[in-house]
Amino acid sequence: MGRGGIGGAGAASAAAMENSDSTRCFVRDVKRIVIKVGTAVVTGQNGRLAMGRLGALCEQVKELNFQGYEVILVTSGAVGVGRQRLKYRKLINSSFADLQNPQLDLDGKACAAVGQSGLMAIYDTLFSQLDVTSSQLLVTDRDFLDPSFGHQLRETVISLLDLKVIPVFNENDAISTRKQPYEDSSGIFWDNDSLATLLAQELNADLLIMLSDVEGLYSGPPSDPQSKIIHTYITEKHGRLINFGEKSRVGRGGMQAKVAAAVTAASKGVPAVIASGFAIDSIIKVMRGEKIGTLFHNEANFWDCSKEVTTREMAVAAKDCSRHLQNLSSEERKKILLDIADALEANEDLITSENEADLAAAQDAGYEKSLVARMTLKAGKITSLARSIRAIADMEDPISHTLKKTEIAKDLVYEKMYCPLGVLLIIFESRPDALVQIAALAIRSGNGLLLKGGKEAMRSNTILHKVITGVIPDVVGKKLIGLVKSKDEIADLLKLDDVIDLVIPRGSNKLVSQIKAATKIPVLGHADGICHVYIDKSADMDMAKRIVLDAKVDYPAACNAMETLLVHKDLNKTEGLDDLLMELAKEGVVIYGGPVAHDTLKVPKVDSFHHEYSSMACTLEFVDDVQSAIDHINRYGSAHTDCIITTDKKSADTFLQQVDSAAVFHNASTRFCDGTRFGLGAEVGISTGRIHARGPVGVDGLLTTRCILRGSGQVVNGDKGVMYTHRELPLQ
Question: pTM for this structure?
Answer without folding.
Answer: 0.62
